[in-house]
Amino acid sequence: MKLHRIAIPFLLTLTIALGLSLTSRLAMSEQDWLSTGINLGAPKIKLGVPDFPPKSVDQQLVSLTQEFNQVLWRDLDDSGLFEMVSKSNYPLKVPEEPLDVDFNAWSAPPASVQMLVFGKVENVNSNMVVTGRVFDLGNQANPGVLAKRYVATLNEVSTRAAAHRFADEILKALGGGLPGINETRIAYVSKRGRGQEIWVMDYDGFNQHPITSYGSISTTPRWSPDNTKLAFTSYVSGNPELYIFSFETNRRSAFPVYKGLNTTPAWSPDGTKIAFCSSMGGDPEIYIANANGYNLQRLTFSPSVDISPVWNPKTGKEIAFVSDRSATPQIYLMSSDGTNLRRMTTAASGGDASAPAWSPNGLFMAFHWRVSETGTYDIYIMEIATGRIIQMTHDAGRNEHPTWSPDGRHLAFESTRSGSRQIWTMLANGLEPKQLTKVGENWNANWSN
Predict the structure, then answer these.
(1) CATH fold for domain 45-174
(2) Rounded distance, CA 17 to CA 75, Å?
(3) Environment class of residue 253 by beta-carbon count within 10 Å: exposed (0-12), middle (13-18) or buried (19+)?
(4) Which is it for strands 251-253 and 209-210: parallel, antiparallel or unpaired?
């Protein structure tokens, strides 16, 4: 009898443990397929990044060197590829030159560094000169992975640019050849006074500045593939029209004026065409045109709202869009000539889905979805080939309008989790959210290419 009483709790505990183990394995499996597909599946590299020392007591160089060190560390930490080894575990001697590196001290506990980033900062002819290196500590015979020198003007903008460039070189060398995102920008809508204007900032939230100053409503900014233009919607004339802003001329480019609603522009991957929503024919439908706005072709024909087109960036042969033809907004897919229409999101969970954003490798679709069970909008990612979906944000306000970084490892999105609508970023597996904007209200982000 005693054995029986002992056995029941034991079996119950074993059953619970097995169940939790199975659930954990299933969750891990679900996370694994996503992490692998978005280039975050490899084990993290243990990276040591001691501060580069300034080779001068000049206060300006000292201050800018500190800025360089902070930006470099943050860029590498934000990449999602590295385990940044705490500086408290570093050896006392910080290397500046290759012969300074004590391989045993850096690779042994407590540091246990695999890759070491080191260098120095000098003032040469009133310029900031940064020499940076990357060593593979597991290869003492030939440790050099990267050696770079950057010449920067002695100011904050140039210093940050040098740090971003070096971080991108490190990411390309250690991250499978994919370019880093540290010199990319994010366009977005900002309300900081009169009107809603288009703003642009660096990927990390630095250098926020307006592109438009119409004192009206401007929205849905979208980068051209070569990053020289922004297409967006403006109500400045009283009617929602498509505008093109050129960064080369720093002014608006010509684009035809069409009657009715004209909004949600999207560039084709080769930059020769624009897809957009227009009600010029009555109902809001999807059209495509040449990049100058001419040679119109209507793609959808439905007595409903068809809006928010986005091209497959890998092939340019498919367009996803949002339609309420099934009573609630859902995401649909069609060929770029309007044929082969099919629905992507299902009605199984109810609610509505909008704001599709195609991953750079063409394998995934990020979107926001308000399912019936939660009643709020969250960010989801769908594997297009299988239809598998994973939820990225949980219990953190309202989260909408995701946009992919060009390396496919990050998402920017808008969220109310801080109390107001702001732009956030996170790794594309949903981890490490970071707030980029804090002034006014900011939304509808689009990441440069």
Answers:
(1) Rossmann fold (3.40.50)
(2) 40
(3) middle
(4) unpaired
Is residue 24 very low, low, confident or very high in pLDDT (cuts 50, 70, 90)?
Answer: very low
Output the CA torsion sign for 110, 112, 113, 119.
positive
DSSP output for 277-313: EE-TTSS-EEEEEETTS-S-EE----SS-EEEEEE-T
Check whether the bond before 110 is cis (ω within 30° of 0): yes
CA–CA gap between residue 217 and residue 234 (Å, rounded): 6
Quick one: pLDDT band at residue 33, thresholds 50, 70, 90?
Answer: confident
Q: What does the block give as tokens for 364?
A: 């995934």
CA 56 vs CA 63, 64, 118, 119, 120: distances in Å: 11, 12, 17, 14, 10
Q: What is the predicted pLDDT for the residue at 429?
A: 94
Residue with tokens 């990276």: 47
pLDDT-derived band at 30, boundaries 50, 70, 90? low
CATH of 185-447, one of 3.40.50.2300, 2.60.40.10, 2.120.10.30, 2.30.260.10: 2.120.10.30
Q: What is the pLDDT of residue 154?
A: 96
Domain coordinates of the chain in residue numbers? 45-174, 185-447
Size (the chain), residues = 449
Question: In which band, very low, low, confident or very high, does the pLDDT at 327 lie, cut at 50, 70 and 90?
Answer: confident
Q: Closest by alpha carbon to 189, among 414, 404, 411?
A: 414
